[in-house]
Design goal:
alpha+beta; five-stranded antiparallel β-sheet; 14% strand; binds guanosine-5'-monophosphate; binds zinc ion
Length: 181
């Protein structure tokens, strides 16, 4: 029996509430429904994450995801919808078999579904440098290791330095606020 819960679902060895399937992709209800209408769409083959996904399988999974999204919207009269996809532990992936989350959203549901990140708006030169660095490694992920850690670490350090400054400004603003009020 497979170690992977999603492979067990594909093989019929674990129960799941199936929504739809194609030759290579399967859509089923997530066990966790923070709001009604949380569906997972997976490749039937055990593919760990986005880095291991080939374009043809990805296209099949995404085509099914589009159909599921429209059906969720129609079936539940959702006000909105999110597609989410997690990779690696740092990216908050918990099940290491590639999956798209299709999540219905409803007006006023933010106490049950949180999405978000802190604002950080770099200068154009910084955005250009990031685009150049990422763009230069398209179709050549192996060179990423070669180009290596140094540049990435420098970028990370600059971002955390910015973050520290932003946090300090936020604290100062809070102090000023409480002093005046
Ligand atoms: P991740 O955090 O990896 O992006 O998402 C994993 C998802 O798989 C979670 O939303 C979790 O609720 C769902 N999940 C985990 N175990 C099972 C299971 O046995 N059956 C189903 N249907 N969903 C599962
Ligand atoms: Zn699997």
């Amino acid at each position: 029996m497979s170690e992977c819960i999603f492979c067990r679902i594909v093989n019929g060895e674990a129960a799941a509430s199936i929504v739809a399937e194609t030759a290579g992709a399967l859509a089923f209800m997530d066990i966790n429904q923070p709001v009604p209408g949380h569906v997972l769409v997976i490749p039937k083959a055990h593919i760990q994450d986005i880095y291991a996904l080939d374009a043809a399988t990805g296209a099949e999974v995404f085509a099914l995801t589009i159909e599921v999204a429209k059906a969720v919207k129609a079936a539940l009269q959702a006000d909105g919808l999110n597609l989410l996809q997690a990779n690696e532990r740092a990216g908050q992936q918990d099940v290491f078999h590639f999956h798209m989350h299709v999540m219905a959203r409803y007006t006023g549901d933010r106490d049950r579904v949180h999405l978000g990140w802190h604002p950080h708006l770099p200068a154009r030169a910084e955005l250009d440098a990031l685009a150049e660095r990422i763009g230069s490694l398209m179709d050549a992920p192996d060179r990423a290791d070669e180009m290596g850690r140094a540049g990435a670490e420098r970028i990370g350090a600059e971002f955390s330095a910015d973050r520290a400054a932003e946090e300090m400004l936020a604290v100062l603003a809070e102090v000023a606020n409480s002093a005046s009020g």
